[in-house]
Structures are given as structure tokens and as C-alpha cells.
């Protein structure tokens, strides 16, 4: 053992393992120790009590292995030390192991049944008695508390009484305080009901069974038996009932004062803190995580989407715990410190994202134009449908300042999170820039994520304020979306009251006629500015956090790369780009379309938007372009002429086939067509024009090294650097960055406008930043001899065959050249390392239902793909329409298709994926 260490416990009786198996427990960990109790509940001070522990210390000591420190693991109700078996195993096997002391609290697990009602402070004292007996109090190594459920409050009480040795806090779903303005969780209300309390908690195993059901996926029957092993009789379940009865929320509860004291002191002493949270816990809900973050705002957080109360039973918490500990107590650098250093090294050259509004405050030319249906305007009036509404630069600047001042006077503070649930247009523009102007953090989640996705995103980001149109406020009321409510539009008093609305934007604007000098604060360049959610096309949508400096760098990268300047008129046919117009000094117009469904943009709506401001630039998604071309025959001559004057077209979100760009060029003959590559985490990263795409194709035909096998996305934009981490023969990523032509690997990037971090996703952030200084994109690709990047697909979609890794994009493009074949997805089926490839295609005309492709079509696809890439799909399947992401309507869900194809080809029902 290292340094001055704790004493190993005296060897005592082992667990009664003859009666039940305990999967995952090394018998060598089990031991007992006798401790003199000084808890107030004891009738005889110093009474000896027998504790049971799972402790890997004796095994480490016997092996002569030095531990890095001690993890004091404290379970809750109605579990026991078995809860921490995965942490014990990982900590024992680590290169630099940690000693884990996982306790069974008295009257719980296999510890002694004292027959006494031990309350909160008794249990804090019990833990102190134990650590003193074990010598932990005098160990010259870091002591880290790890806790769940009731263990959170108890371990915090212990930590506050041992500030000299307590080095860090790790908490899984727990609470240290409850706001009595809200009801306690329903499950606990039921268990506290006087008629049901003992029948549920003591007389039966109902409370225990309910708790064990709060894991997704559910534990095995053997694991459930192990958790129940110490609680087989009602006498052995008495403490389960007592724990529930000791919930100290009411002010007259005997433990209330102790719990208030512990909760109040938590924020007084800052130690490294990690919060690992199951998001679907019906007991310790999001509000308890929010409370912990108010008390420990410096904490690292990871939210496990879909995990329930027993998060450690359904998700790997051991590996991230040890990684986090290595960073804080080893040679690594904590992710939070990496962010601080990155900010410290940032350039001092900073112009706020909203600087153009300051420069244009006397300009009466158009800044923002709304097209088509407008629910309501900034001043609260409701125009008729199908109108244009123009806001000048002077008006926009004034409204931003006035609304910013009003929000401050209302109570919005710099750093507060403000969710904006308003369609793109002048109203959203005003709200975005007002929030940024006062240092509030905008939270932007696409309505296209759907009810479930939005709820997950909003509850996860925990905005302090919610500003929305009436429809959004109704949704917020029904679905429990967080934040104090402000209506973006005027409401009658009855509706305001029913929806819990405190203010409306028109009222706030009316309340401010003059903004006092200095009333609007200067923004901190390195403070958070925005939480922007990903599309959810590769899993649950992630919140991506940008600072003000990174937002400004994004603006500058786009401005320099595309020569956009003040006075440019642009059409924002893709919702995220609506944010950029005023920052660039460009007049922007939002077309008449459903921005949550890009493919609703028609050619006529696009032309009318161009004509409204004589726009010369268009931003649109690939799905929008597809529909514009499909509806181009509806254009009038004047509309065609307007489109012919556009000189720049940008499309982001997914690659666009060259053939589609050629068709678009006919519609926009004067325009340079660009398809920048990037992601929510860094947009854009590269730029490529149609001319470069043509040249790259010709280079591929001539056999240039690296040209081909994917989509050419060009060269880095202003300020960006790119590389790849090569794949080995098994399809795994190696760790040496290269730009050598023809080497396929995971694409990594760095740029001044790349994200700061993922919001409350510490593990995800750790993965994306595991190559120091670089963001791992999750895409695979390679460079050619002209230093152009080619994207071959997603890392998660690499097919691992017996002949090596296969990336899908080149094969998909080859299949799409077969007459009658539309979008194609190449997916893998079978075990990793011996997968076979399946091509899933759309056809024209579309098939009536999914199934195997007709034999002649399947053979044409196979032979075409094999000729182009050397890959011969084992099967070709047809589908009426691929499942795609909501934001772009173009990113195919290959994971869903892979599962579907494997099920169907294994004899399953021929249903839709």
C-alpha cells in the first residue's frame, strides 16, 4: 500500500455465499470489522457493532500493489455494497489501482441489525466511526467519496467532517436537498403513506422489487437475487422502512435540521466533483441534478440518456470513474482544465458576435425580412398570412438593446440559460441577439426533434428561462419543459395565467423606452454563449456549448472563406444559418417554408425570398435543394431571372451528389455552388465548390493517389486544421495523426470556432477530445495528393469484414449510378470482423413495400458496385423511403437499416425498418 495507508479490516465472517451466488463479487473482497459506535442513537456509548464491507485493500496489500488512493463507496436504500462490484473490479485491475471500501451501512446489507432507528446524523457518525477504525482518517492518500441515493447525503455529511482528507466527490442519482415548493416524487409519496409504508417496505419485498426494476436494461435474475440476499425476512428489512421514514423534507422532521446543514455546506468547499446521472429516474429527477449543480457549479457531469435510478446496473460507470480519477490524481489533465488552458491561449483579438448591430444602428436599410405566414411580430401585432415584414438595421439594433435591458430588469442575468422556442425570422433574430448582448446563454433545439427529443434536450440543458410562441408554451405546460415562462407574443390574461407566463416580449419592449448608458454589460469572450443541439441523427441530440469567442470565430471563418460582407443579401433556407445574417452584416430573409422540415422549401418560395431583398447568396440544406429542383417547373419567368442573379449557393448538412449540383447549376447559372463540410461541433470545417468536385472526379479517373472512394469535401476553411487517425486492419482507430494521401481514418479537426464542450456529457466530451487539442469527428475519410479531404462515412458505419474495414460511401455512390436506383445505404450484417455487406436502395418508381430487389436489378447493383469498389454486396434490398434524421431530412439511419436487414434476412417478418 502507498504512503501512510489505512489499516486493512480485521478478518471476520465472510458472506453467506453458500445460499446465493453473487455474480461479479470476488470472495476475497468480503470481510467484516467490529467498530465502537458513538452515534447518538446508541443507548450505550461505545457499543461494538459489526460492519460488513466489500474491500479490495487486503488483496492489493497481499499482492504488494500500491494503491493511488481510497474510494469510500456508500450505497443507498434498499441496496448494499454489491452495488459497487463493477467499480471494485475495475479499480483492482487498473494499472494504478485504487482501494475501494464499499460499506454495508448498519442494519443494511450483511452488516449487523442493531434494532435501532438510525437517522441521518447517526449514519454520518456511523461512517465516521468506521473510517476512524479502518485508519482511513489518517491515510496519506486521497480519499474520494462515491455514493448513490441516500448515500449521497450521508457521504456529504462525512466529507464535511473530514475536510483534511476528503479529496473529491462522485455522485450517481441522488439528492442532497428537496425544494418543498414541489411535491416529492410519487414513488416516495406512496412509500410514505401510513397505510402502505410498512407493507411496502418491510412486510413485503415490494419496495425492493420496485427499485430493482429501475434499471434499463433490467438486471438478470441472478443479480436480482444477489441484491435481495441480505433482505430475506421482514426483520432484516426493517432498515429499508426506516430509511424511507427518515426522508427529511418536512420542516418538522427530526432529521430536517441535519439535512439542511449538510446541503447548505456543500457549496462552501469546492472539491473536484463528478455527477453520473440516469436521465429516466422517476425518483431522483432532473430537478435534483439541477440542485446539485447550483451547489457545485464546477462539477463534471455526464447524463446517461435512458438510464434509470440504478444507473450503475445498466451503464458502465466504472471506466469513466477511473478515467476521471486518473485525470485529477494522476498525470493527466482534467477536461475542464483543458478548456481553461484553451481559453487562456486564445487570441485577444475579439469582436463580439453582435458587433455589426452596433455599427449599423443608424442604417435604415433592411436587416431581416420575414416571408409567408408570421405568427406574430416583435411588437405583438398579428399580420395577415403571406406577407413580408421588413426590419431595418436601426430597428433591429434598437429592439435588441431595449429587449436586452428589459430582460435584465426582469431578472435574466449573464450566464442564465434561455431556451428560445420561436420560428426563424425577425422575432427569433431579436431574441437571439438580445440574449447574447446581455451575456445570457441561448439554448437552441430544433422543433424538428419532435416532442420526445425536445423534452430530452430541454430537460437535460435545464434552461432558467423559456421564451416561446403560444404553441410552444402549451407544449411546455403539457410536457414539463423547464424555465420561467415568457411569451414571445401577446396573450390575454387568462391564457397567460393558464400557461404560467410571467411576461410577454411585447410588454417587455413597451416597458423600456431608453437604455441607460452602461446598463448593458460587456460580455466575457470566454463565457458560454450558446448551447446548440445536434440533429440527433447519430443518437440522442447532444448539446454543444460555444463561448462568445467561438461564436465570433465561426462568423469570421464564414466571412473570410466566402467573402460575405456587409450589404450582402442572403436567403436562410436552413434554420441554423438564420442566426448568422446579422452577425455578418448581411440582410437575411427566411423563405415561406416549414423550417422544421427543410424539404418543404419550394422553388417559388426560394425565388420570392431572393426577390424580397435582391439576395445574392442562398443557404439551404440538401433536402431543400432536392425539393427546389423538383418544383422548378412552377417558376414564373421573373422568378427564374431572380435566381439567375444569385452568385453564391451554400449547402450544409449532408453531401450532395455531383449530378444534383449540375442540375442546380442550371437553375442558378451565375452562382458558385459550395457544399461546406462540418457539424454542429464545428461549422464549417472545409469548403468545396462544384468546380473542385469536377476536378477531383477527373483526378480519381486518372488514378491520382487518394482521389476517389468517398465524397470530396475540399480543403480547410479559414483557421481550420484537419487530419486523420488511421484505421488498422480490424477497423479500429490508431492514435497517430496523418495527412498522408490515401490513408483512411477517423477525421480529426481543430479550429478557433470549434465547440468548447458537450453540455453535461463528460464521457462524450472525453472521447471527442481524447486526441489532445483535436476534436474527433466520428467521420472517416482520407486526403488525396492535392490535400483535399474525402469523406467515406461515419466511423460507426464502417463495416468490419474478414477482409478488413469497408467504408460505405463509394459503394453507395456507385449503386446510385444504376438507372432507376435512388439513395442507397450500404450496411453490414453479422458478427464484427466477419460482416457481409447489404445494399438497401430506393428506386424510381418507389416499391410498394420493402423487400428483396428483383433479381435483374440486384445483379446490376452488385456488378456496378463491385466494378467501382471491389465490394460485392451479398444482398440488395429495396425500401420505399430511407429513415432519415429530422433536421436535414437527408442523413440515413444506417444503424436502423442494418438491424432491419439482419432481422429480415435471418427469416424475420418483412416489415418496415
Automatic annotation (TrEMBL):
PROSITE patterns: AMP_BINDING. Keywords: Hydrolase, Ligase. PANTHER family: ACYL-COA SYNTHETASE, MEDIUM-CHAIN ACYL-COA LIGASE ACSF2, MITOCHONDRIAL. It comes from the Bacteria. Belongs to the ATP-dependent AMP-binding enzyme family. One of its GO terms (molecular function) is hydrolase activity. Residues 70-311 form the AB hydrolase-1 domain. Residues 370-753 form the AMP-dependent synthetase/ligase domain. Pfam families: Abhydrolase_1, AMP-binding. InterPro entries: AB_hydrolase_1 (IPR000073), AB_hydrolase_fold (IPR029058), AMP-bd_C_sf (IPR045851), AMP-binding_CS (IPR020845), AMP-dep_synth/lig_dom (IPR000873), ANL_N_sf (IPR042099). This is Alpha/beta fold hydrolase.
Amino acid at each position: 500500500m502507498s504512503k501512510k495507508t489505512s489499516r486493512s479490516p480485521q478478518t471476520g465472517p465472510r458472506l453467506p455465499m453458500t445460499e446465493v451466488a453473487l455474480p461479479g463479487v470476488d470472495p476475497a473482497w468480503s470481510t467484516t470489522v467490529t467498530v465502537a459506535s458513538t452515534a447518538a442513537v446508541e443507548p450505550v456509548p461505545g457499543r461494538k457493532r459489526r460492519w460488513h464491507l466489500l474491500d479490495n485493500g487486503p488483496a492489493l496489500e497481499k499482492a504488494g500493489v500500491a494503491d493511488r488512493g481510497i474510494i469510500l463507496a456508500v450505497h443507498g436504500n434498499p441496496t448494499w455494497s454489491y452495488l459497487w462490484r463493477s467499480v471494485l473490479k475495475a479499480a483492482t485491475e487498473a494499472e494504478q489501482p485504487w482501494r475501494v471500501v464499499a460499506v454495508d451501512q448498519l442494519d443494511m446489507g450483511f452488516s449487523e441489525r442493531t434494532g435501532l432507528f438510525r437517522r441521518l446524523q447517526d449514519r454520518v457518525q456511523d461512517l465516521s466511526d468506521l473510517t476512524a477504525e479502518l485508519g482511513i482518517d489518517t491515510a496519506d492518500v486521497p480519499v474520494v467519496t462515491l455514493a448513490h441515493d441516500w448515500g449521497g447525503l450521508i457521504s456529504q455529511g462525512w466529507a464535511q467532517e473530514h475536510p483534511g482528507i476528503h479529496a473529491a466527490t462522485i455522485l450517481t442519482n441522488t439528492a442532497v436537498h428537496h425544494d418543498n415548493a414541489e411535491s416529492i416524487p410519487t414513488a416516495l409519496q406512496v412509500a410514505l403513506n401510513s397505510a402502505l409504508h410498512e407493507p411496502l417496505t418491510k412486510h413485503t419485498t415490494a419496495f425492493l422489487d420496485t427499485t430493482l426494476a429501475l434499471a434499463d436494461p433490467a438486471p438478470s435474475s441472478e443479480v436480482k437475487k444477489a441484491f435481495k440476499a441480505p433482505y430475506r425476512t421482514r426483520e432484516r428489512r426493517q432498515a429499508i422502512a426506516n430509511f424511507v421514514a427518515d426522508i427529511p423534507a418536512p420542516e418538522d422532521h427530526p432529521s430536517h435540521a441535519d439535512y439542511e446543514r449538510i446541503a447548505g455546506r456543500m457549496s462552501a468547499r469546492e472539491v473536484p466533483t463528478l455527477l453520473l446521472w440516469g436521465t429516466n429516474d422517476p425518483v431522483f429527477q432532473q430537478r435534483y441534478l439541477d440542485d446539485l449543480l447550483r451547489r457545485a457549479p464546477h462539477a463534471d457531469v455526464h447524463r446517461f440518456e435512458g438510464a434509470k435510478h440504478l444507473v450503475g446496473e445498466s451503464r458502465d460507470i466504472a471506466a469513466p470513474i477511473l478515467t476521471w480519477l486518473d485525470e485529477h490524481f494522476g498525470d493527466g489533465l482534467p477536461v475542464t482544465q483543458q478548456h481553461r488552458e484553451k481559453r487562456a491561449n486564445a487570441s485577444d483579438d475579439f469582436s463580439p458576435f453582435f458587433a455589426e448591430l452596433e455599427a449599423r444602428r443608424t442604417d435604415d436599410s433592411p436587416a431581416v425580412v420575414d416571408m409567408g405566414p408570421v405568427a406574430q411580430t416583435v411588437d405583438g401585432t398579428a399580420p395577415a398570412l403571406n406577407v413580408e415584414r421588413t426590419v431595418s438595421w436601426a430597428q433591429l439594433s434598437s429592439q435588441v438593446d431595449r429587449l436586452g435591458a428589459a430582460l435584465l430588469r426582469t431578472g435574466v442575468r449573464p450566464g442564465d440559460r434561455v431556451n428560445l422556442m420561436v420560428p426563424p425570422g425577425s422575432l427569433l433574430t431579436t431574441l437571439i441577439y438580445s440574449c447574447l448582448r446581455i451575456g445570457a446563454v441561448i439554448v437552441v433545439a430544433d422543433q424538428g426533434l419532435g416532442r420526445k427529443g425536445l423534452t430530452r434536450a430541454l430537460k437535460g440543458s435545464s434552461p432558467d428561462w423559456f421564451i416561446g410562441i403560444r404553441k410552444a408554451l402549451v407544449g411546455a405546460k403539457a410536457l414539463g419543459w423547464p424555465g420561467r415562462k415568457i411569451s414571445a407574443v401577446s396573450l390575454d390574461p387568462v391564457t397567460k395565467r393558464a400557461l404560467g407566463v410571467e411576461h410577454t416580449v411585447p410588454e417587455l419592449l413597451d416597458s423600456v423606452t431608453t437604455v441607460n448608458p452602461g446598463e448593458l454589460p460587456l460580455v466575457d469572450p470566454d463565457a458560454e454563449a450558446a448551447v446548440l443541439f445536434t440533429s440527433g441523427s447519430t443518437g440522442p441530440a447532444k448539446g454543444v456549448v460555444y463561448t462568445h469567442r467561438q461564436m465570433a470565430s465561426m462568423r469570421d471563418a464564414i466571412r473570410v472563406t466566402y467573402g460575405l460582407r456587409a450589404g450582402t443579401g442572403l436567403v436562410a433556407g436552413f434554420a441554423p444559418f438564420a442566426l448568422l445574417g446579422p452577425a455578418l452584416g448581411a440582410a437575411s430573409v427566411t423563405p415561406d417554408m416549414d423550417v422544421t422540415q427543410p424539404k418543404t422549401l419550394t422553388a417559388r418560395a426560394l425565388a420570392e425570398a431572393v426577390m424580397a431583398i435582391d439576395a445574392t447568396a442562398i443557404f439551404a440544406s440538401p433536402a431543400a435543394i432536392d425539393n427546389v429542383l423538383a418544383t422548378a417547373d412552377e417558376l414564373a419567368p421573373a422568378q427564374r431571372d431572380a435566381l439567375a442573379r444569385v452568385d453564391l449557393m451554400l449547402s450544409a448538412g449532408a453531401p450532395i451528389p455531383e449530378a444534383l449540383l449540375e442540375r442546380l447549376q442550371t437553375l442558378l447559372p451565375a452562382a458558385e455552388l459550395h457544399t461546406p463540410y462540418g457539424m454542429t461541433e464545428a461549422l464549417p470545417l472545409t469548403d468545396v465548390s462544384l468546380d473542385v468536385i469536377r476536378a477531383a472526379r477527373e483526378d480519381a479517373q486518372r488514378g491520382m493517389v487518394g482521389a476517389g472512394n468517398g465524397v470530396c469535401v475540399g480543403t480547410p476553411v479559414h483557421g481550420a486544421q484537419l487530419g486523420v487517425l488511421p484505421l488498422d486492419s480490424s477497423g479500429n482507430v490508431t492514435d497517430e495523426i496523418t495527412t498522408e494521401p490515401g490513408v483512411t481514418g477517423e477525421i480529426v479537426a481543430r479550429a478557433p470556432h470549434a465547440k468548447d464542450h458537450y453540455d453535461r456529457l463528460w464521457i462524450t466530451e472525453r472521447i471527442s477530445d481524447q486526441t489532445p487539442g483535436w476534436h474527433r469527428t466520428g467521420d472517416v475519410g482520407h486526403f488525396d495528393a492535392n490535400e483535399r479531404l474525402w469523406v467515406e462515412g461515419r466511423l460507426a458505419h464502417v463495416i468490419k469484414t474478414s477482409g478488413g474495414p469497408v467504408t460505405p460511401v463509394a459503394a453507395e455512390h456507385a449503386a446510385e449510378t444504376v438507372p432507376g436506383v435512388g439513395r442507397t445505404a450500404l450496411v453490414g450484417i453479422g458478427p464484427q470482423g466477419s460482416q457481409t455487406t447489404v445494399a438497401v436502395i430506393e428506386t424510381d418508381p418507389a416499391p410498394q413495400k420493402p423487400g428483396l430487389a428483383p433479381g435483374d436489378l440486384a445483379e446490376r447493383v452488385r456488378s456496378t458496385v463491385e466494378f467501382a469498389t471491389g465490394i460485392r454486396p451479398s444482398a440488395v434490398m429495396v425500401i420505399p423511403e430511407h429513415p432519415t434524421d429530422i433536421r436535414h431530412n437527408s442523413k440515413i439511419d444506417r444503424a436502423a437499416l442494418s438491424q432491419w436487414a439482419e432481422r429480415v434476412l435471418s427469416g424475420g417478418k418483412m416489415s418496415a425498418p
